[in-house]
């Protein structure tokens, strides 16, 4: 057997994805060839949200921006002003200094 024609059977292909899509299946079934075969592995990750001991409130605040291009800077400025204000009144969680 000539190496040129066998190289597609002697290569290893690894596909990583969070979701299984038809395009991934087509790629896996059509182009992923190997002398020893193919394997699909899935892992189930339960997450860590069930291990949280307390409920952390989520607060959404509206901020004003003059345009969509300046929304990121306005959001950051609002966060900085709000964080300084909350830390001043002791309402913002912080790491205790030792």
UniProtKB/TrEMBL annotation:
Keywords: Signal. One of its GO terms (cellular component) is small-subunit processome. PANTHER family: ORF PROTEIN-RELATED, U3 SMALL NUCLEOLAR RNA-ASSOCIATED PROTEIN 25 HOMOLOG. Pfam families: UTP25_NTPase-like (PF22916). Residues 6-39 form the UTP25 NTP hydrolase-like domain. The keyword Protein biosynthesis does not apply. The lineage of its organism: Eukaryota, Viridiplantae, Streptophyta, Embryophyta, Tracheophyta. It comes from Zizania palustris (Northern wild rice). InterPro entries: UTP25, UTP25_NTPase-like. This is UTP25 NTP hydrolase-like domain-containing protein. One of its GO terms (molecular function) is U3 snoRNA binding. Residues 1-26 form the signal peptide. One of its GO terms (biological process) is maturation of SSU-rRNA from tricistronic rRNA transcript (SSU-rRNA, 5.8S rRNA, LSU-rRNA). The keyword Signal applies. It comes from the Eukaryota.
